[in-house]
Write a structure and sequence with these properties.
The protein is mostly helical. The protein has helices at 3-39, 41-55, 59-68, 70-89, 93-106, 114-130, 134-147, 152-164, 168-181, 186-222, and strands at 232-236, 243-248, 259-264. The protein starts with a helix and ends with a strand.
Length: 265
């Protein structure tokens, strides 16, 4: 066998087997890299958050950047929101709030970006609601609705917060606002029906309590004239909803009573 031919066969042998081994090693390295990436997923989120926070040193710097690089700031604000959504899905609400706050600092204040800012406020409100900071959540939702009055999600979120604060009439008002925007929102329709029933029951209870107090006060005054509130009966007309007051004098020796009637609306 010639020297050149022998050399070719040696190279062929040397390059054949090592290639097979490299494939095996390469696959092993790929698996190890995948495991490493999975282990550092949360760490990567933390690093991203740190970079976002560092990118916004103070409001004055951001204002200058907004003037010069509006589109870049809008893009970064959106990225901050997406990162916040990831933290929110993990239950890391404080980290999520920090991301949405960063988004608000980056997002321009011009009217064309009002909806984006409303979203960031509303998302921050969702975090505060989960943290039990309900009053603050209402304030954030109000900021969102001020920026975007037809933002249904912010109205629904504020209604939820109002209900938690037992401000049911305010919650009903927000549900009404949602239904004016979109009558097909079942959450609003069901919430309104449920809370309106409770509100009505409370109002009726308050009326009854007020009437009892007035009755007691009235008996004190009328007693001086030999009368009591029992001499007066309020009857509601089911058709008009107005009330009529029937007065009955105390029974005399003849046993007869003279009823009189006054109409009140």
């Amino acid at each position: 066998m010639s020297e050149s031919k022998l050399r070719f066969e040696v190279l062929e042998e040397e390059t054949h087997y090592p290639v097979t081994k490299q494939k095996s090693v390469g696959k092993q390295e790929e698996n190890e890299q995948r495991d490493t990436n999975e282990e550092t997923t949360e760490e990567t989120l933390e690093q991203q958050l740190e970079r976002l926070v560092l990118s916004v040193k103070n409001d004055s710097d951001v204002e200058q950047d907004t003037v010069k690089n509006t589109l870049e700031n809008v893009k970064n604000a959106s990225a901050a929101k997406e990162l916040g959504n990831k933290f929110f899905s993990q239950g890391s609400y404080l980290d999520a709030i920090e991301c949405y706050t960063t988004a608000l600092k980056l997002c321009p204040a011009e009217e064309e970006y009002a909806y984006s800012r409303a979203v960031y406020f509303s998302n921050r409100a969702a975090c505060l609601l989960r943290l039990g900071r309900t009053e603050e959540s209402v304030d954030e939702c109000t900021q969102a609705v001020t920026l975007s009055p037809t933002y249904v999600k912010a109205l629904l979120r504020r209604a939820e917060a109002f209900e938690k604060l037992d401000k049911l009439e305010e919650a009903v008002a927000d549900f009404d606002a949602v239904l004016k925007i979109d009558p097909t929102v079942r959450t609003a329709a069901q919430g309104r029906e449920r809370l309106q029933k409770i509100v009505h029951e409370r109002q009726e209870k308050m009326k009854a309590e007020m009437m009892d107090k007035l009755k007691g006060f009235g008996n004190t005054i009328l007693g001086k004239f030999g009368l009591s509130t029992d001499n007066f009966q309020m009857v509601q007309d089911p058709t008009t909803g107005s009330y009529s007051i029937n007065f009955q004098q105390n029974t005399g020796e003849s046993g007869q009573q003279k009823p009189s009637q006054q109409q009140h609306k």
